[in-house]
Amino acid sequence: MNLPIRETWLDTAKGLGITLVVMAHVLDHSTWRWAHPIYFAASLFFMPFFFIISGYLFAVTERKALFRKRAQGLLIPYVMFLGAIMAGVLVVDFLRGDTPAPWQIRELITDALLGGRHLTRELGVFWFVTCLVATQLVYNEVAIRTSGPTDPGMLVFVGASVGLAYSIQAYWQDVRAPLALTNVPLAIGAFWFGHFLRERGKSALWSAVFVVA
């Protein structure tokens, strides 16, 4: 049986990205004098990097099949791990003698249901999952109706999404939308670029243009 050839450079790239995320979060709490500059430099690209890889792996899919796949592969683990870590946080608080008040437990549960920027501390990283799922579902809907990443309709959609993203950054930075939905417009730009690279071939010139933009 002929198995599909696995692109090992993608695994390497994802491993490097995960290492950068961990390093950046450690440096964010470090007192080392170079910690903040390195954290700032890494934070400029490590999250878009994951959306680009996801876009590179994207293939147009029937909407119900895509939702089912993302629910099984991302949303169910999201709920399970989020619940497990919340329970762990509460257990640690109890063991420390810091018993949460009923209103604090309700607030924790409410924040978990809202997701996105409502999640902080140990739960903060979970925003990425819901943002990625929403990005894939929305992008797929447009991809179904267009002929590829360079289709005029797709380009208008991506341009409008990125424009909206910069507007949000300029005027509504503090908005706490549920499930990190306000991050989706900017994520679509990175996701599209990954799809573009896959369909049109990897290009140093286009990569440089995207990074500068």
Overview of this protein structure:
The chain has 213 residues and is an all-alpha fold. It has one domain. 71% of the residues lie in helices and 0% in strands. The chain has helices spanning 8-27, 35-43, 46-56, 63-95, 102-114, 127-145, 152-171, 184-200, 204-212. Helix 1 packs antiparallel against helix 3 and helix 6 (127-145) crosses helix 8. It starts with 7 loop residues before the first helix and ends with a helix.
Radius of gyration (Å): 19 Å
Spatial gap, N to C terminus: 44 Å
Would you report the number of β strands?
A: 0
Query: Hey, roughly how much beta strand do the residues contain?
Result: under 5%
Poorly predicted segments: none
Instruction: Give the rounded overall mean pLDDT.
Output: 86
Biggest sheet overview: none
Residues in helices, as a percent range: over 70%
Structural class by helix and strand composition: mainly alpha
Shape: globular
Short characterization:
71% of the residues lie in helices and 0% in strands.
